[in-house]
Amino acid sequence: MNASLGNSASSRDIASVLHPYTNFTAHEKTGPLVITGGNGIYVSDESGKNYIEGMSGLWCASLGFSEKRLIAAATKQLETLPFYHNFSSRSTNPTIDLATKLLEMAPVPMSKVFFANSGSEATDSAIKMVWYYHNAIGRPEKKKIISRKRGYHGVTVASASLTGLPGNHKLFDLPIDRILHTETPHFWREAQPYESEEDFATRMAEALEDLIQAEGPETIGAFIAEPIMGAGGVVVPPRTYFDKIQEVLARYDILFIADEVICGFGRTGRLFASETFRLKPDMITVAKQLSSAYQPISALFINEKIYAALKKGADEVGVFGHGFTYSGHPVAAAVALETLKIYEEDSIVDHVREVMGHFQKRLRDLNKFDKIGETRGYGLIGAFELVADKCAKTPFAPTGWAGKAVAELCLTEGVILRAMGDSIALCPPLIITDKQIDDMFDKIEIALTKWHQSI
Ligand code: PMP
Question: What does this protein need as cofactor (predicted)?
């Protein structure tokens, strides 16, 4: 990582860039890993070393790093109309085409699509629409939003409040009020020894109901969840968890927001994980794989019930007072539209279904290592968790050093993964082949063997 320390790119980086999610003291010592090129599922650094991008960057570059059709789509739109906005009834053809296409693809009937630039902005927009909705229909007290511990929904003031990770709250004076967190459905870590998955799912739904009761159901406006938790450590819920959760939400007339920012567009072997987990959300957020990350764009689907209330509210106020300069940016929309075309024409979701069994098998094989407590995942997303004691599931103390060490060794072997504490996430581009999956896991196994020998 620090081979380039002292060269101008590294020292200029240290001198000038404030890196997200980075320890600044360590960064000043090691410098950046400067990525300079990409080809398929691989990226390369300035020394020419190649890496398998086992995380698709940040769970996003679904079509890899050299899809010519996306480059052509961006270029064509830049030449035609590089920018126009969507405020005050203005529109552009890529925005219209993309919204139309997304509504056709939606896993449940949806009425409209609101565009933003990032997952955080989509979440923030959803929060504001929940509040607006309840005001417009005359229930101004129904404003609290329930998220989950270890959930991840972004980093803006409100979306970071929904995120249920201590590092996103501590020293930031978050969460803001009206945001609550319920339990994490992580069976391996959180279940009692005697509990079946079914019993555990029931207890999780009861915990949600207890929270609603304690706060007063008339004050709870919405619940938000990722179908599979990503940044919180890749947590796949028990099979019936969401059925039970949705029963509770329906009982108290609470809106459901599905955060499909990671899962959307094929990650679980279905177009949307809402299909995989039988979700019936009122709103859905998507980003990342929407454009294979070639352009920053996110979208928020809202159903007819929400739209009707927003329309009523806007009639009262004059206009709906929300939107970003770049909402529905034509270049980002054109790239997203082309991404969706590629998913269809290249049968990407079918491809995911073909390779995901092999991916999950190779992931489960890592259980043979002494310090791996759990391997978990679904589709083309997964994680393995490092523990001090496999039987007792004892975490390492302090948290994080083992994850960091293993991720570093994987990097040396030529695989980029992401450590979240002592869980290491895998989320490769959707175009990965069986052979590349083998190559990736062979390298991970070499890194794990070296690490086990070293501790
Ligand atoms: N929701 C989920 C599920 C995410 O994983 C992320 C980002 N990792 C976000 C929201 C926030 O997206 P962004 O970083 O684009 O703001």
Answer: pyridoxal 5'-phosphate
Q: How far apart are CA 364 and CA 374, in angstroms?
A: 8
Other beta carbons within 10 Å of 453 = 7
Supply the range of the domain harboring residue 394.
33-66+347-454
Query: Is the same domain home to 312 and 256?
Result: yes
For ligand 1, say whether the CB of 153 is within 6 Å of any of its atoms. yes
Q: Is 163 in the pocket of ligand 1 (CB under 6 A)?
A: no
Predicted local distance difference test score (pLDDT) of residue 7:
59
Q: Are residues 122 and 220 in the same domain?
A: yes
Q: Is 256 left (phi over 0), alpha (psi -120 to 50) or beta?
A: beta
**Ligand 1, from 115, 163, 261: best to mutate by most atoms within 8 Å of Cβ?**
261
Q: With 0.90 as the threshold, say if the pTM is over it.
A: yes
Number of domains in the chain: 2
List CB contacts of 303: < 8 A, sequence separation 6 or more. Answer: 108, 109, 110, 111, 282, 283
235 lines ligand 1 (CB under 6 A): no
Separation between Cα atoms, residue 232 and residue 244, nearest integer Å: 22
First to last CA, the chain: 21
**Are residues 149 and 290 located together in one domain of the fold?**
yes
Q: How far is the CA of 154 from the centre of ligand 1 (A)?
A: 5
Region 257-264: mean pLDDT is 98
Residue 427 CB less than 6 A away from ligand 1? no
Residue 154 is assigned to a structural domain of this protein: yes
pLDDT for the residue numbered 1: 46
Tell me, using a 6 A CB cutoff, whether residue 231 lines ligand 1. Answer: yes
Which ligand 1 atom minimizes the distance to the CA of 156?
16
259 lines ligand 1 (CB under 6 A): yes
Distance 193 CA to ligand 1 centre (A): 33
Would you say the CB of residue 158 lies under 6 angstroms from ligand 1?
A: no
pLDDT in tens, 284-318: 999 999 999 999 999 999 999 999 999 999 999 99
Share the mean pLDDT of the chain: 97
Q: Give bridge partners of residue 182 from the DSSP assignment.
A: 148
Whether 125 is in the pocket of ligand 1, judged by its Cβ within 6 Å, is no
Q: For position 246, which CATH number holds?
A: 3.40.640.10
The answer to the question of residue 3 being in a domain is no
